[in-house]
Design brief:
single chain, about 375 residues, alpha+beta, 10-stranded mixed beta sheet, 7-stranded antiparallel beta sheet, 19 strands
């Protein structure tokens, strides 16, 4: 297979203070970065004041403090809220794999939540962010459009990841239109990390939340309770696994896995079914599963693993993540390449902000990989 390589810049940021102060810090950090400013600031407003007010009403209710953070960001950059790409994309994208395991089946006897994230590299922040905002739970995770979170873990050991369920709902060409007015997944995940201690609190927090994005969301906490939350066109289905239960594995790719909603989307991408079957073959009914085994699964190329380098088709692995609720750590490998190394971060350790280059390997698409098939 023909392969080329390109280099991008990854960042690690540490933000603390009030919500407004955190937003202002973030704005100052990208003020001199012309590439990031071009991405996050629109020349022409595509969303009006009424729509911003409607979004802010949702944000204030479900993710309080976010509006103040966005205002600080805009003030630092001296732009109007209507020119922020975040509002345009969040008014209502990815294809991924995720696996939650309890200590019953891991070699180190610790629960773990791992995931790959596949999408266009142009839509990836390549930023790991630690936040300590006044009156919010401290958390870390990778960012989406700077303010959102793609996944993460908080100070109580609650870990959250997601995969899109079916065709992503997002304001981009060839994607699916939302059926309801509601929140994008990156707001949902951040809200849970900042406001919930465990799986039970998280499930209670989102039970009335308007979620426009169709997704499979995995929750894992320090007590080893797990949950799979499937959202579909504003409806919910939940599978809960408590620490006392025998079941010790939950996983999803990019199609419906709970029976309540299979009739709504009875087909899936061939690669989603293939990845699901691969995870099942590697992990179901297995014991003594190691972190190295999981990392290898994340970085091995499909169909012998879960990794893709098809960035030209908006289907490349931008990051691989391992979250440890016991340790409150996050391990990340950028770009689906072992050469970029696994980097480990402790939520409570103090590191300096950093920028560093990583490489992406770029393949051509495999014929038929985006074909739909029944399951």
């Amino acid at each position: 297979m023909n392969e080329s390589k390109m280099t991008v810049v990854a960042r690690t940021l540490h933000l603390s203070g009030t919500s407004y102060e955190v937003g202002y810090q973030l704005g100052n950090k990208i003020k001199e970065n012309l590439l990031l400013k071009k991405r996050y600031i629109l020349k022409d407003k595509t969303i009006d004041l009424k729509q911003i007010e409607e979004e802010n009403e949702l944000f204030n209710h479900w993710c309080p403090g976010l509006c103040e953070e966005i205002r600080g960001f805009a003030d630092a950059l001296q732009v109007e809220l209507g020119n922020l790409y975040f509002y345009d994309m969040s008014y209502l994208v990815p294809r991924c794999s995720q696996i939650a395991l309890t200590s019953k089946v891991t070699a180190d006897h610790m629960p773990v939540l791992v995931r790959n994230y596949e999408y266009a590299y142009e839509q990836e922040d390549f930023s790991l962010v630690k936040t300590a905002i006044n009156k919010k739970y401290r958390h870390m995770g990778t960012s989406m459009l700077e303010f959102g979170r793609d996944e993460g873990i908080n100070e109580w050991g609650l870990a959250v990841t997601m995969t899109s369920c079916g065709l992503p709902i997002v304001k981009l060409q060839n994607m699916k239109e939302p059926k309801i007015k509601g929140l994008q997944y990156w707001i949902v995940i951040r809200a849970l990390l900042e406001n919930c201690k465990d799986v039970n609190e998280a499930l209670d927090y989102i039970k009335d939340m308007p979620i426009a994005f169709n997704m499979n969301m995995l929750l894992l906490d320090k007590a080893e309770n797990m949950a799979l939350v499937l959202t579909m066109d504003g409806k919910f289905a939940v599978k809960r696994v408590e620490a006392k239960d025998q079941e010790s594995l939950l996983f999803t790719t990019n199609h419906v896995v709970l029976p309540q909603f299979k009739h709504l989307e009875p087909q899936a991408f061939r690669h989603s079914i293939g990845r699901y079957q691969y995870i099942e073959k590697e992990l179901k009914d297995k014991k003594n599963i190691t972190r190295e085994q999981l990392k290898t699964m994340l970085l091995e190329k499909y169909p012998n693993g879960l990794c893709f380098h098809n960035y030209r088709e908006s289907f490349g692995t931008t990051k691989s993540i391992l979250l440890s609720p016991f340790e409150k750590t996050l391990e990340i490998c950028w770009g689906g390449r072992l050469e970029n190394q696994w980097l480990k971060y402790d939520l409570h350790s103090a590191e300096a902000d950093e920028e560093f280059e990583i490489d992406l390997s770029i393949d051509q698409i495999e014929a038929g990989i985006f074909d739909w098939q029944s399951f």
